[in-house]
């Protein structure tokens, strides 16, 4: 076994503490990664707080992982020691179902194995990136392009692919009007990526406090949803809307902003249900959809796209001692725009 230092939490109301966790010895197809940086995702907070159901504590969150390969199994062909690599929200899947064969492992019919709060094929609980090392099968490791720094690369492994995938799937590009709901960790990436794809981007945020940032990231327009006239002015405007908010919103109001055949895609994951009126959909053949991350192939495609277009998240690098404070600040929307843990401080 490989012993890694980590930061773990023991319950929904507990603070993070120093810990040691066991990483398995390398199997034939495994890669050992020395983690350099780990992003903090809202999903980490939901899971650590038990918002999405029972959690097998102690828990080490983190599924935005960037690091360096330090060892490989005897059968590994894709990576070598010294490679710059990343790991996202999943570390394995069945590899045999229709979805896996299509390269959509995130929708594995048998359930993919999550990077943390899951159970691996050896029957052991998975622990995530708030740690110094991780062992992952090579098929779930991606290569980080040379012109993306490791600290900036980390959030791309969740925030980047979570927004790239629906924008790619629903055809964001020239001639398309795309709205991004929320200007947080996910939202600011959606703006940058949609703009790079060639779409006309509008940000819909509670206030105008981040307007200057939004326009700098590539948005053509920026509106405050707290102003009632916003919904009147923008009715029927957008071909595609990416909702990045991890809290309950009035979906019906946002559906009214879609064009004929327009789609709103939820990538934020609030703990509470969202209520949709059927008439909000059938009036203009509108769609309300959801999207998870992306498959491994698409995640690599996203990284290469970001490298080509010089896209990187705006980050604030913190020490491991600041995780609890960072969680509070995320919940208070007090971060521009993603916290990244320097794992050398663990």
UniProtKB/TrEMBL annotation:
Entries under PANTHER family matching the protein: ALDEHYDE REDUCTASE
Keyword annotations: Metal-binding, Oxidoreductase, Zinc
Domain Enoyl reductase (ER): 11-341
Annotated source species: Paenibacillus amylolyticus
Cofactor: Zn(2+)
The protein's name in its UniProt record: Zinc-type alcohol dehydrogenase-like protein
SUPFAM superfamilies assigned to the protein according to its UniProt record, in alphabetical order: GroES-like, NAD(P)-binding Rossmann-fold domains
InterPro entries cross-referenced by the UniProt entry: ADH-like_C, ADH-like_N, ADH_Zn_CS, CAD-like, ER, GroES-like_sf, NAD(P)-bd_dom_sf
An MF annotation (GO) of this entry: zinc ion binding
Family: Belongs to the zinc-containing alcohol dehydrogenase family.
EC number: 1.-.-.-
Principal EC category: oxidoreductase
Membrane-spanning ranges: none
Entries under Pfam families matching the protein: ADH_N, ADH_zinc_N
